[in-house]
Amino acid sequence: MATSNTPEFDLSKLPDVSDISPETITNRVNAINSLCPNPRQKFIMERLITHLHQVVSETNLTTEEWMTAILFLTRVGQTCTDTRQEFILLSDVIGVSALVDSINHPKVGDSTENTVLGPFFTEDSADIPHGGSIASAKESGTPMFVCGRILDTSGQVIPNAKIETWETDAEGFYDTQYADRQGPDYRGRLKSQQDGSYAFRGIVPVAYPTPGDGPVGDLLKSLGRHQFRPAHLHMMIEAPGFETLITALFFRGDKYLKSDAVFGVKTSLIVDLQDVTSNEEARAKGFESAPFKLLKQDFVLVKNEEAKKARAERAAKTVLDEAKVEG
User: Fold this and answer.
1) Strand pairing class (270-271; 245-251)
2) Range 22-27 contact pairs with CB under 8 angstroms and sequence separation of 24 or more
3) By the number of CB atoms within 10 A of the CB, which of 26, 66, 230, 281 ranks highest?
4) Does the structural domain 97-307 have CATH classification 2.60.130.10?
5) Is residue 8 over pLDDT 80?
6) pLDDT for the residue 189
Protein backbone atom coordinates (compact mmCIF):
# COMPACT_ATOMS: atom_id res chain seq x y z
CA MET A 1 0.00 0.00 0.00
CA ALA A 2 1.30 3.44 -0.89
CA THR A 3 2.34 5.56 2.09
CA SER A 4 1.40 9.18 2.55
CA ASN A 5 2.70 12.07 4.64
CA THR A 6 -0.86 13.30 5.09
CA PRO A 7 -1.75 13.29 8.81
CA GLU A 8 -4.72 11.33 10.12
CA PHE A 9 -7.95 13.24 10.63
CA ASP A 10 -11.04 12.41 12.63
CA LEU A 11 -13.62 12.11 9.84
CA SER A 12 -16.39 10.73 12.03
CA LYS A 13 -17.99 14.14 12.58
CA LEU A 14 -18.44 14.88 8.89
CA PRO A 15 -21.95 14.51 7.47
CA ASP A 16 -22.69 11.74 5.02
CA VAL A 17 -21.70 12.44 1.45
CA SER A 18 -24.53 13.96 -0.54
CA ASP A 19 -24.80 14.40 -4.26
CA ILE A 20 -22.78 17.41 -5.38
CA SER A 21 -25.06 20.16 -6.66
CA PRO A 22 -25.19 23.96 -6.60
CA GLU A 23 -27.31 23.66 -3.45
CA THR A 24 -24.95 21.35 -1.51
CA ILE A 25 -21.36 22.04 -2.59
CA THR A 26 -20.79 25.10 -0.37
CA ASN A 27 -21.81 23.31 2.81
CA ARG A 28 -19.76 20.29 1.81
CA VAL A 29 -16.58 22.34 1.32
CA ASN A 30 -17.08 24.17 4.61
CA ALA A 31 -17.68 20.88 6.40
CA ILE A 32 -14.40 19.45 5.15
CA ASN A 33 -12.57 22.67 6.00
CA SER A 34 -14.01 22.59 9.52
CA LEU A 35 -11.29 20.05 10.37
CA CYS A 36 -8.77 22.93 10.32
CA PRO A 37 -7.13 23.15 13.76
CA ASN A 38 -6.52 26.92 13.51
CA PRO A 39 -9.75 28.71 14.56
CA ARG A 40 -8.91 31.97 12.80
CA GLN A 41 -7.91 30.25 9.57
CA LYS A 42 -11.02 28.09 9.72
CA PHE A 43 -13.23 31.17 10.18
CA ILE A 44 -11.61 33.12 7.33
CA MET A 45 -11.81 30.17 4.94
CA GLU A 46 -15.47 29.55 5.82
CA ARG A 47 -16.39 33.15 5.03
CA LEU A 48 -14.21 33.25 1.90
CA ILE A 49 -15.69 30.04 0.49
CA THR A 50 -19.24 31.11 1.33
CA HIS A 51 -18.95 34.53 -0.33
CA LEU A 52 -17.01 33.27 -3.34
CA HIS A 53 -19.60 30.56 -3.95
CA GLN A 54 -22.35 33.17 -3.59
CA VAL A 55 -20.73 35.27 -6.34
CA VAL A 56 -20.52 32.23 -8.61
CA SER A 57 -24.16 31.37 -7.98
CA GLU A 58 -25.52 34.92 -8.20
CA THR A 59 -23.78 35.59 -11.51
CA ASN A 60 -24.34 32.11 -13.01
CA LEU A 61 -20.62 32.15 -13.80
CA THR A 62 -19.72 30.23 -16.94
CA THR A 63 -16.83 27.80 -17.27
CA GLU A 64 -15.20 30.14 -19.78
CA GLU A 65 -15.49 33.11 -17.43
CA TRP A 66 -13.96 31.18 -14.54
CA MET A 67 -11.11 30.01 -16.77
CA THR A 68 -10.55 33.63 -17.80
CA ALA A 69 -10.21 34.54 -14.12
CA ILE A 70 -7.76 31.68 -13.51
CA LEU A 71 -5.63 32.65 -16.48
CA PHE A 72 -5.66 36.29 -15.34
CA LEU A 73 -4.39 35.34 -11.87
CA THR A 74 -1.78 33.11 -13.49
CA ARG A 75 -0.52 36.09 -15.50
CA VAL A 76 -0.44 38.21 -12.34
CA GLY A 77 1.82 35.65 -10.68
CA GLN A 78 4.05 35.31 -13.72
CA THR A 79 4.52 39.10 -13.85
CA CYS A 80 5.91 39.26 -10.30
CA THR A 81 9.68 39.70 -9.93
CA ASP A 82 12.08 40.66 -7.13
CA THR A 83 11.35 44.33 -7.86
CA ARG A 84 7.72 44.14 -9.03
CA GLN A 85 4.80 42.74 -7.04
CA GLU A 86 1.83 42.54 -9.38
CA PHE A 87 -0.36 40.89 -6.72
CA ILE A 88 0.13 43.89 -4.43
CA LEU A 89 -0.82 46.13 -7.34
CA LEU A 90 -3.94 44.02 -7.90
CA SER A 91 -4.81 44.29 -4.20
CA ASP A 92 -4.30 48.05 -4.44
CA VAL A 93 -6.47 48.73 -7.50
CA ILE A 94 -9.44 46.72 -6.21
CA GLY A 95 -9.31 48.57 -2.90
CA VAL A 96 -8.42 45.61 -0.69
CA SER A 97 -5.12 47.14 0.46
CA ALA A 98 -6.89 50.35 1.50
CA LEU A 99 -9.65 48.39 3.24
CA VAL A 100 -7.25 46.20 5.23
CA ASP A 101 -5.21 49.27 6.18
CA SER A 102 -8.28 51.19 7.36
CA ILE A 103 -9.57 48.27 9.41
CA ASN A 104 -6.25 47.75 11.14
CA HIS A 105 -5.54 51.41 11.83
CA PRO A 106 -8.72 53.06 13.15
CA LYS A 107 -8.37 56.76 13.87
CA VAL A 108 -7.80 57.68 17.53
CA GLY A 109 -8.65 61.26 18.50
CA ASP A 110 -6.64 63.68 16.39
CA SER A 111 -4.19 61.03 15.22
CA THR A 112 -2.86 61.20 11.68
CA GLU A 113 -4.61 58.70 9.45
CA ASN A 114 -2.76 55.83 7.81
CA THR A 115 -2.80 55.06 4.12
CA VAL A 116 -1.32 52.39 1.86
CA LEU A 117 2.47 51.88 1.85
CA GLY A 118 2.75 51.46 -1.91
CA PRO A 119 5.34 49.36 -3.73
CA PHE A 120 8.23 51.84 -3.79
CA PHE A 121 9.50 51.84 -0.19
CA THR A 122 13.09 50.64 0.21
CA GLU A 123 15.32 49.92 3.20
CA ASP A 124 18.37 51.78 1.85
CA SER A 125 17.40 55.41 2.43
CA ALA A 126 20.34 57.64 3.35
CA ASP A 127 20.39 59.39 6.72
CA ILE A 128 20.05 63.16 6.37
CA PRO A 129 20.46 65.93 8.95
CA HIS A 130 17.68 68.15 10.21
CA GLY A 131 16.81 70.39 7.27
CA GLY A 132 18.80 68.28 4.81
CA SER A 133 17.77 67.34 1.28
CA ILE A 134 16.31 64.04 0.09
CA ALA A 135 16.92 65.01 -3.55
CA SER A 136 20.19 64.41 -5.33
CA ALA A 137 22.55 66.89 -6.97
CA LYS A 138 20.62 66.42 -10.22
CA GLU A 139 17.59 67.89 -8.44
CA SER A 140 14.92 69.29 -10.74
CA GLY A 141 11.33 70.28 -10.26
CA THR A 142 9.79 72.76 -7.84
CA PRO A 143 11.77 73.03 -4.56
CA MET A 144 9.79 72.21 -1.43
CA PHE A 145 10.59 72.61 2.26
CA VAL A 146 8.70 70.29 4.63
CA CYS A 147 8.56 70.89 8.38
CA GLY A 148 6.42 70.29 11.44
CA ARG A 149 6.33 68.33 14.69
CA ILE A 150 5.81 64.75 15.79
CA LEU A 151 3.24 64.59 18.59
CA ASP A 152 1.19 62.09 20.59
CA THR A 153 -2.60 62.22 20.92
CA SER A 154 -2.34 64.39 24.05
CA GLY A 155 -0.25 67.00 22.23
CA GLN A 156 3.09 66.06 23.80
CA VAL A 157 6.12 66.18 21.51
CA ILE A 158 7.93 62.97 20.56
CA PRO A 159 11.71 63.41 20.22
CA ASN A 160 13.99 61.01 18.30
CA ALA A 161 11.18 59.55 16.20
CA LYS A 162 12.55 57.89 13.08
CA ILE A 163 11.10 59.42 9.93
CA GLU A 164 11.33 57.81 6.49
CA THR A 165 10.18 59.84 3.52
CA TRP A 166 10.16 59.15 -0.22
CA GLU A 167 8.67 60.69 -3.34
CA THR A 168 8.80 60.77 -7.14
CA ASP A 169 11.22 62.88 -9.11
CA ALA A 170 9.99 65.68 -11.35
CA GLU A 171 9.25 63.17 -14.12
CA GLY A 172 6.90 61.08 -11.95
CA PHE A 173 9.30 58.16 -11.39
CA TYR A 174 10.69 56.64 -8.20
CA ASP A 175 14.41 55.90 -8.11
CA THR A 176 13.73 52.13 -8.16
CA GLN A 177 12.09 52.46 -11.56
CA TYR A 178 15.38 53.41 -13.22
CA ALA A 179 17.47 50.52 -14.57
CA ASP A 180 20.71 52.42 -13.85
CA ARG A 181 19.83 53.24 -10.23
CA GLN A 182 23.08 53.80 -8.32
CA GLY A 183 21.53 54.29 -4.91
CA PRO A 184 18.67 55.95 -3.02
CA ASP A 185 17.33 59.19 -4.44
CA TYR A 186 14.33 61.35 -3.56
CA ARG A 187 14.13 59.48 -0.27
CA GLY A 188 15.73 59.96 3.12
CA ARG A 189 15.77 59.09 6.81
CA LEU A 190 15.93 61.58 9.68
CA LYS A 191 14.92 61.95 13.34
CA SER A 192 12.74 64.44 15.13
CA GLN A 193 14.54 66.95 17.37
CA GLN A 194 14.16 67.21 21.16
CA ASP A 195 11.25 69.61 20.65
CA GLY A 196 9.57 67.11 18.31
CA SER A 197 10.35 69.16 15.21
CA TYR A 198 11.52 67.82 11.87
CA ALA A 199 12.50 69.48 8.60
CA PHE A 200 13.84 68.47 5.20
CA ARG A 201 14.11 69.66 1.62
CA GLY A 202 12.73 67.94 -1.45
CA ILE A 203 10.66 68.81 -4.48
CA VAL A 204 6.94 68.94 -5.12
CA PRO A 205 6.16 65.39 -6.36
CA VAL A 206 3.95 64.88 -9.41
CA ALA A 207 1.11 62.54 -10.32
CA TYR A 208 2.16 59.30 -11.99
CA PRO A 209 0.63 56.17 -13.54
CA THR A 210 0.79 52.78 -11.84
CA PRO A 211 2.48 50.12 -14.02
CA GLY A 212 0.24 49.52 -17.02
CA ASP A 213 2.21 46.96 -19.00
CA GLY A 214 0.89 43.91 -17.15
CA PRO A 215 -2.38 42.11 -16.39
CA VAL A 216 -3.48 44.66 -13.79
CA GLY A 217 -3.02 47.45 -16.34
CA ASP A 218 -5.12 45.44 -18.79
CA LEU A 219 -7.80 45.02 -16.11
CA LEU A 220 -7.99 48.77 -15.50
CA LYS A 221 -8.31 49.44 -19.22
CA SER A 222 -11.12 46.89 -19.53
CA LEU A 223 -12.93 48.64 -16.66
CA GLY A 224 -12.54 52.04 -18.29
CA ARG A 225 -10.34 53.26 -15.44
CA HIS A 226 -7.16 55.34 -15.53
CA GLN A 227 -3.89 54.21 -13.91
CA PHE A 228 -2.91 57.45 -12.16
CA ARG A 229 -2.16 58.27 -8.57
CA PRO A 230 -2.34 61.90 -7.44
CA ALA A 231 0.93 63.53 -6.41
CA HIS A 232 1.90 62.61 -2.86
CA LEU A 233 4.73 62.58 -0.34
CA HIS A 234 5.22 59.31 1.58
CA MET A 235 5.95 59.42 5.31
CA MET A 236 6.63 56.54 7.71
CA ILE A 237 7.24 57.43 11.36
CA GLU A 238 8.35 55.11 14.16
CA ALA A 239 8.89 55.72 17.87
CA PRO A 240 9.17 53.32 20.86
CA GLY A 241 5.79 52.68 22.46
CA PHE A 242 3.86 53.99 19.46
CA GLU A 243 2.21 52.33 16.50
CA THR A 244 4.18 52.88 13.31
CA LEU A 245 2.48 55.49 11.16
CA ILE A 246 2.49 54.81 7.42
CA THR A 247 0.89 57.69 5.61
CA ALA A 248 1.17 60.14 2.72
CA LEU A 249 0.33 63.77 2.09
CA PHE A 250 -1.66 64.72 -1.00
CA PHE A 251 -1.82 68.18 -2.55
CA ARG A 252 -5.05 70.12 -2.88
CA GLY A 253 -6.08 70.74 -6.47
CA ASP A 254 -4.61 67.56 -7.96
CA LYS A 255 -7.06 66.32 -10.59
CA TYR A 256 -6.68 62.68 -9.47
CA LEU A 257 -7.65 63.19 -5.81
CA LYS A 258 -11.16 61.84 -6.41
CA SER A 259 -10.05 58.87 -8.51
CA ASP A 260 -6.77 57.64 -7.04
CA ALA A 261 -6.08 54.31 -8.75
CA VAL A 262 -5.30 52.64 -5.39
CA PHE A 263 -7.88 54.48 -3.19
CA GLY A 264 -5.25 55.91 -0.83
CA VAL A 265 -6.52 59.48 -0.53
CA LYS A 266 -8.20 60.55 2.71
CA THR A 267 -9.58 64.04 3.25
CA SER A 268 -7.46 64.63 6.35
CA LEU A 269 -4.29 63.92 4.33
CA ILE A 270 -4.93 66.62 1.70
CA VAL A 271 -2.65 69.58 2.38
CA ASP A 272 -1.93 73.07 1.06
CA LEU A 273 1.42 74.39 -0.12
CA GLN A 274 2.53 77.93 0.62
CA ASP A 275 4.44 80.05 -1.91
CA VAL A 276 7.63 81.62 -0.55
CA THR A 277 9.29 84.33 -2.65
CA SER A 278 11.88 85.67 -0.18
CA ASN A 279 15.48 84.92 -1.22
CA GLU A 280 16.58 85.46 2.38
CA GLU A 281 14.17 82.85 3.65
CA ALA A 282 15.11 80.51 0.81
CA ARG A 283 18.80 80.68 1.74
CA ALA A 284 17.91 80.13 5.41
CA LYS A 285 16.15 76.93 4.41
CA GLY A 286 19.10 75.69 2.33
CA PHE A 287 17.96 76.71 -1.16
CA GLU A 288 20.07 78.88 -3.45
CA SER A 289 17.22 81.25 -4.12
CA ALA A 290 13.43 81.69 -4.12
CA PRO A 291 10.80 80.78 -4.99
CA PHE A 292 10.01 77.53 -3.20
CA LYS A 293 6.99 75.78 -1.75
CA LEU A 294 6.52 75.44 2.00
CA LEU A 295 4.65 72.50 3.54
CA LYS A 296 3.93 72.65 7.27
CA GLN A 297 2.43 69.48 8.73
CA ASP A 298 2.35 67.94 12.20
CA PHE A 299 2.00 64.19 12.59
CA VAL A 300 0.18 62.64 15.56
CA LEU A 301 1.16 59.10 16.58
CA VAL A 302 -0.98 56.63 18.54
CA LYS A 303 0.37 54.76 21.55
CA ASN A 304 0.37 50.97 21.21
CA GLU A 305 -2.24 50.51 23.94
CA GLU A 306 -4.50 53.14 22.33
CA ALA A 307 -4.28 51.39 18.97
CA LYS A 308 -5.00 47.99 20.51
CA LYS A 309 -8.07 49.36 22.30
CA ALA A 310 -9.36 51.07 19.14
CA ARG A 311 -9.03 47.86 17.11
CA ALA A 312 -10.85 45.87 19.80
CA GLU A 313 -13.69 48.42 19.90
CA ARG A 314 -14.01 48.35 16.13
CA ALA A 315 -14.07 44.55 16.07
CA ALA A 316 -16.76 44.47 18.77
CA LYS A 317 -18.86 47.01 16.87
CA THR A 318 -18.51 44.99 13.66
CA VAL A 319 -19.75 41.85 15.39
CA LEU A 320 -22.69 43.79 16.89
CA ASP A 321 -23.62 45.29 13.52
CA GLU A 322 -23.51 41.86 11.85
CA ALA A 323 -25.73 40.44 14.59
CA LYS A 324 -28.28 43.21 14.02
CA VAL A 325 -28.32 42.51 10.29
CA GLU A 326 -28.75 38.76 10.79
CA GLY A 327 -31.41 39.37 13.44
Assistant:
1) parallel
2) 22/57, 25/53, 26/50, 26/53
3) 230
4) yes
5) no
6) 98
